[in-house]
Design brief:
Blueprint: H1 2-22, E1 25-31, H2 49-55, E2 59-61, E3 64-65, H3 71-80, H4 84-87, H5 96-99, H6 106-112, E4 116-121, H7 165-176, H8 182-191, E5 198-199, H9 209-224, E6 231-237, E7 244-245, H10 248-251, H11 304-334, E8 341-347, E9 352-353, E10 359-360, H12 366-369, E11 373-376, E12 384-386, E13 390-391, H13 395-402, H14 417-421, E14 431-437, E15 440-446, E16 450-457, E17 469-476, H15 494-505
Parallel strand pairs: 1-6, 1-8, 2-12, 3-13, 4-6, 5-7
Antiparallel strand pairs: 2-11, 8-11, 9-10, 14-15, 15-16, 16-17
Helix pairs in contact: 2-11, 7-8, 9-11
C-alpha cells in the first residue's frame, strides 16, 4: 500500500512539475516611436549595450513592421492581433471599443486564462481607449505616468517632459497667473519658450517619467514574485517620442559631430504627392521654425544644426531607454523570475529623421513602418536574427504559443515561435502596412527585397477594384535602400509589380 502511495505521489510531482515549467510569465515592453536605432539591429552609431546583450538570449526580427505608423492605430492593432481595417481605429480619436465592443486584447486574453495582468506607462494610446486604459484588459487599475509620485529629492516633471530650472520657474509662474489645467500651462510655457523640443537636464534617471516608471515597474516585479498566478506585466516607455528629453549623461554618450544629416532629403523620383505627409507635430515645440503645417518637405525649413540636434536627441533618448530596460531585466533576474518569463520588446512604429524631407512618422515608407521587435524565451536558445517579414499582429499569437496557451482562431497574425527555433525560415512572403492620406488609403507590402504600395480611394476596402487605385509605388532595397526612385511604372520591374499586386489583391478577398 505504501508503495502504491509513493508511486501516485511521484506521478503527481512529475505532472505538477511539467505543468509548472509550461506556465510562463510575460514581461511586455513597449517603447514609443522607437525605430531600429539599436546596435543589435545593425545601427553602428547606437549605444545600446543592454538591448544588445538581451539579443544574445533572444531572437531579433530585423524586418518587423507595424500595421499603421501612428500610435493609436498601431497599438490598437498590435494589442488585438487584428488589422486596422478590422479595428477601425485609423486615427487618434476613434475609441477601439466603440467600433468593436467585444474585441479581445492580449492582456484581456491572459487575464481570462488566469493571469494577473498589470499595465503602466503607455501601452494603448489613451485617446483610443477608455479612461482606465481599457478596463477589460487589467486585473489591477492601470498606472499612468502622472499617477506615479516623484521619488524623494526629485521634482515632478513639468508637463510630463521637462526638468530644467527654467521649465520649473515658468510652471510656477503659470500657476500664479491662474493657469490651472494642463492645456493652459502648456500654452503659457510655449508662449514663453518653455516647451522645448529637446532637453538634457543633469538629473538622475528617475527624475524623468520613464525612469520613475522603471522604479515602479521594479517594485511591481517584487510584489509579483510571490503571486500565486502567472503574470503579464506591461511596461510602456514614452521616449524617444517628442520632445527629446533625457538625462545629460545620455547626451554625453555621443558627439554631435559624429552625426550626419540624412543624405537623401528629397521626394523619390517618379513619386506621387499623396505619399507625403502634412503634419505639424514637430513644430508644436519651441525651437522649431513655425513652418507651414501643410508643407510636405519639412527639412527645407529646418537648419542643418537643428537636424543634427534632433538626431542627437533621438539617439540619447534611445540610450536612456536602453539603460532602463537593462535595469528592469536585471531586476527580473535578481528575483529569479527570468527562467519563467518570456520577454517581448517592441516599438509601436518607426520615425523619420529627415529622409525624404520628412520628420516624425505618418507614412508608408520604410523609416515609418519598420520598428524593433525582439522576443526572449527561457525555453529557446538565443542569439538569433531573422530577416523574414513579420508583423506586429504576430505578437499576440506568439505570446500564446510561448506560454502554451491556445491561440484564438480569429487572429490575423501568426506565431513567430517557429522562426525563433529556426531563423532561416519564413512564415509569410510579406508584411502589410497601411496609411491614410488625403482621399486615399495606401497599402504597403514589404518582403525581403521590395516594398510595393497601392493608394486607393479611402472609401473602398473590398473587393479589390483596380479602378480605385490612385497611385502606385515600388522600391528595390537591394539597389536603392534609401527609396530614391519609384519603380512602379518601370517596364523592367513590371513582372515584380504584377506579382506583388496579385499578392495585395488577396488581402481584399
Amino acid at each position: 500500500m505504501n508503495l502504491i502511495k509513493k508511486v501516485v505521489w511521484l506521478q503527481f510531482i512529475i505532472i505538477f512539475s511539467s505543468y509548472a515549467e509550461k506556465v510562463q510569465n510575460i514581461l511586455f515592453i513597449s517603447v514609443d516611436d522607437l525605430k531600429p536605432t539599436i546596435g543589435c539591429f545593425g545601427d553602428e552609431k547606437a549605444k545600446t549595450p543592454y538591448m544588445d546583450k538581451l539579443a544574445k538570449s533572444g531572437t531579433v526580427f530585423l524586418n518587423a513592421h507595424c500595421q499603421q505608423a501612428v500610435c493609436g492605430p498601431s497599438r490598437a492593432s498590435l494589442m488585438t492581433g487584428m488589422r486596422p481595417d478590422y479595428t477601425q481605429v485609423l486615427d487618434l480619436k476613434t475609441r477601439m471599443r466603440q467600433k468593436n465592443p467585444n474585441i479581445l486584447t492580449i492582456p484581456q486574453y491572459f487575464k481570462n486564462n488566469g493571469y494577473e495582468t498589470i499595465g503602466m506607462g503607455k501601452i494603448f494610446d489613451p485617446r483610443c481607449v477608455d479612461s482606465q486604459m481599457d478596463r477589460f484588459s487589467w486585473s489591477q487599475p492601470f498606472k499612468r505616468f502622472h499617477e506615479i509620485p516623484a521619488l524623494k529629492g526629485n521634482k515632478p516633471t513639468v508637463l510630463g517632459h521637462f526638468q530644467s530650472d527654467r521649465a520649473h520657474e515658468l510652471l510656477a509662474e503659470a500657476k500664479r497667473n491662474g493657469a490651472a489645467t494642463y492645456a493652459e500651462q502648456k500654452k503659457y510655457l510655449h508662449d514663453r519658450g518653455g516647451n522645448q523640443v529637446v532637453e538634457s537636464a543633469d538629473v538622475p534617471d528617475e527624475a524623468y517619467e520613464d525612469g520613475l516608471l522603471n522604479e515602479y515597474a521594479k517594485k511591481t516585479l517584487k510584489e509579483l514574485k510571490n503571486s500565486k498566478k502567472p503574470f503579464f506585466l506591461a511596461v510602456g516607455y514614452k521616449r524617444p517620442h517628442l520632445p527629446f528629453t533625457a538625462p545629460k549623461k545620455y547626451w554625453d554618450m555621443y558627439k554631435r559631430n559624429n552625426f550626419k544629416i540624412h543624405p537623401y532629403q528629397k521626394k523619390a523620383k517618379n513619386d506621387d504627392e499623396i505619399t507625403y505627409i502634412k503634419v505639424g507635430e514637430l513644430k508644436s515645440y519651441n525651437g522649431v521654425p513655425d513652418y507651414d503645417s501643410h508643407s510636405k518637405d519639412v527639412s527645407k525649413h529646418i537648419s542643418e544644426d537643428l537636424q543634427l540636434e534632433l538626431i542627437h536627441g533621438y539617439y540619447a533618448c534611445v540610450s536612456y531607454i536602453d539603460k532602463l530596460i537593462g535595469d528592469l531585466v536585471d531586476e527580473l533576474r535578481r528575483l529569479k523570475l527570468d527562467k519563467s518569463t518570456a520577454i517581448v520588446i517592441w516599438g509601436d512604429h518607426g520615425w523619420h529623421l529627415g529622409d525624404h524631407g520628412l520628420w516624425c512618422k505618418h507614412t508608408n515608407f520604410e523609416q515609418a513602418t519598420r520598428s524593433p521587435l525582439m522576443f526572449i524565451s527561457p525555453e529557446i536558445n538565443g542569439g538569433k536574427k531573422s530577416t523574414s517579414p513579420v508583423e506586429f499582429i504576430d505578437i499576440f499569437p506568439t505570446l500564446c504559443d510561448l506560454t502554451s496557451q491556445d491561440i484564438p482562431n480569429n487572429l490575423h497574425g501568426l506565431s513567430l515561435k517557429p522562426i525563433m527555433n529556426n531563423p532561416k525560415i519564413s512564415l509569410k512572403s510579406s508584411a502589410l502596412s497601411q496609411w491614410p492620406s488625403g482621399n486615399g488609403m495606401g497599402y504597403a507590402l514589404r518582403n525581403e527585397r521590395y516594398r510595393y504600395i497601392e493608394w486607393m480611394k479611402s472609401d473602398t476596402r473590398s473587393p479589390y477594384d483596380k479602378s480605385n487605385v490612385i497611385a502606385k509605388q515600388l522600391f528595390d532595397y537591394k539597389k536603392d535602400p534609401l527609396e530614391t526612385v519609384n519603380l512602379a511604372n518601370e517596364s523592367k520591374y513590371e513582372i515584380i509589380a504584377n506579382h506583388l499586386q496579385n499578392e495585395l489583391k488577396s488581402y481584399f478577398k
